[in-house]
Specification:
Blueprint (H helix, E strand, L loop, with lengths): L1 H4 L7 E2 L14 H11 L5 E2 L3 H8 L6 H15 L2 E5 L7 E7 L4 E7 L9 H14 L4 H17 L10
Parallel strand pairs: 1-2, 2-3
Antiparallel strand pairs: 3-4, 4-5
């Protein structure tokens, strides 16, 4: 992927899905190294969840302040904007933290009961990519993606269905 994309000049969003919902790793150590050394430096934006951001930065990210530090660390390490999705943090709200090298943005949405939800990070990353393809700024793309995912999950609120 890095070889293919390295010759392109179009924006690249990387959603580093490092583990399945069960916790089983999806990339071996060589794959993680390639992601860090070859693909992320080509990215325009990276959209990890908390455990993925911890794996990419080596930091412990347990609080909103630490998420902010993690987003900045991702930018400094890989040179791309970072959007850390905070669904793994405890609390009544879900926090997304965005850092693009200049500005920091935060989006919060109420945490919905009725999970466990599956595929929310992939939906979010896809929605961000779709909004960026419309030439929206990163802050607008994240806001719209957050609103869309929240609205989709609200359709299943109170049920045990996973999202499709």
């Amino acid at each position: 992927v890095a070889e293919f994309w390295g010759q392109r000049r179009t924006p690249l969003e990387v959603d580093p899905v490092l583990a399945a919902s069960s916790g089983a790793p999806l990339l071996n150590p060589a794959g993680v190294r390639a992601l860090k050394l070859r693909l992320l430096p080509l990215a325009t934006v990276v959209t990890p969840n908390v455990p993925e951001a911890e794996a990419l930065t080596g930091l412990s990210l347990k609080t909103p302040q630490e998420l902010r530090q993690g987003a900045r660390a991702l930018y400094e390490m890989y040179g791309c904007a970072a959007v850390i999705t905070g669904g793994h943090l405890r609390g009544n709200e879900i926090l997304e933290v965005v850092y693009d090298g200049l500005d920091e943005y935060q989006c919060t949405t109420p945490r919905l009961r009725g999970g466990p939800w599956r595929g929310t990070g992939c939906r979010f990353a896809s929605a961000v990519a779709a909004e960026l393809a419309k030439n929206n700024s990163l802050s607008i793309a994240v806001r719209k993606a957050t609103e869309w995912v929240s609205a989709e999950l609200a359709k299943y609120k109170g049920g045990s269905r996973t999202t499709r």
